[in-house]
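Consider this today:
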Amino acid sequence: MPKNAVVTLRYGPYSAVGLSVEHRTFRLEGLQAVLADDGHEVILEKIEDWNVVELKVNGEVVFYCNIKDLEFGGDGKLDPLCQQARVAVLNAY
């Protein structure tokens, strides 16, 4: 995938520390940083599926995971899921 691709980051609501179920982006910060460092444009899109994160490139889902498995905050460089997502985007057609 060439640099400067448009990546749609779709995310669903989740419950954090017993709080109400809402769309939160705190766990997406590292993923966004890793993709931005590669020069991709990241578009956030809320979905209604609970605990879901999907990355879409050219209309195709290239990566998905549970949002609770992503590290909270940070730059994503040490999060193995962020690195898997990065590779999936780089290998997308």
In short: The longest strand covers residues 60-66. Residues 9 and 55 are 5 Å apart (CA to CA).
